[in-house]
Each structure stands twice: as C-alpha cells, then as structure tokens.
C-alpha cells in the first residue's frame, strides 16, 4: 500500500499511523462542518453556507488526494524532489496532488471577497450565482494550472538525473 519512507520501520509505522489518523479526523470534522452549514445555520447567513460547504468539500478532496498520493518532499542541499509514496505514486498522482494544493487559494480569495461584499455592498449579493460560478471556474483553472506546472517543470530531465542520481541513490523516477 505505502512504500517505506524512512529506514527505521518504527518511524514508518508512526508516520503511517499519523497519516491515517489525521485523514480520519479531517473527514470527521469536514462532514460535521457540512452538516452544520446545511442544517443548523440561521437564515441570515444566506449563501455564505454554500461557500462554507464548498470549502469543506474542497478540503475533503485535498485530504483524499494527500492520503492516496502520500507526498514526501526530499531535500539534498539545494536539490528538491517530491515523491509520492502512497497508492497512487506516479507522476500523474503527484500532479493531481499539486493541482489540489493550488486550488485552495481561489477559494480563500473568493471567501474574503464575499465577506467584503456582504459588509460593504450587500446589494451585490443578489448576483451570488454568478459569483459562485466564477469561484468554481477559478478553482478549476488554478487546479489545472498547478497540474500543468508540475508536468512541465517538475519532471526530471536526463541531465538532472545524471547530476543528482548519486544524491538520490539513483532512485530518481
């Protein structure tokens, strides 16, 4: 399921236990947040519930990708390598993880823009469906952009493998 990350098997077991525990807690808390946002919110909150739900679903997606890929950053001097040690460890999995990592930024930006509009220009909240469509488009664009950056910038070329091979025990993918 997961490849060995550390030489010491005890450290590997602790890391895997921590990964599973943190993932389960993230699922529990995000489902609680979704439940609260969908059922227990007062009417005055309005479409803000949708943003909170979208944020929680986004975090569930991020948590799932992190659990599946289990990315491990490795640094040797100035060299940096991100490798996936989970069930989905190849380059496509790492690209998906990096895409998910980048999609939270538009969500946070739109979240704060919504709060600004709600306080300063509440009449503009009548256009919330358009606002939400823009949020989903920006999230998708950010996800795809981060994935494409991985595909074009993070795949090692032959020169990199030749130079850094000894530092990475000739295990560069």
UniProtKB/TrEMBL annotation:
Transmembrane segments: 14-36, 48-72, 92-117, 124-145
One Pfam family, short name: 7TM_GPCR_Str
Classification via InterPro entries: 7TM_GPCR_serpentine_rcpt_Srj, 7TM_GPCR_serpentine_rcpt_Str
Keywords from the named record: Membrane, Transmembrane, Transmembrane helix
Coiled coil segments of this chain: none
Full protein name: G protein-coupled receptor
Species this protein is from: Pristionchus fissidentatus
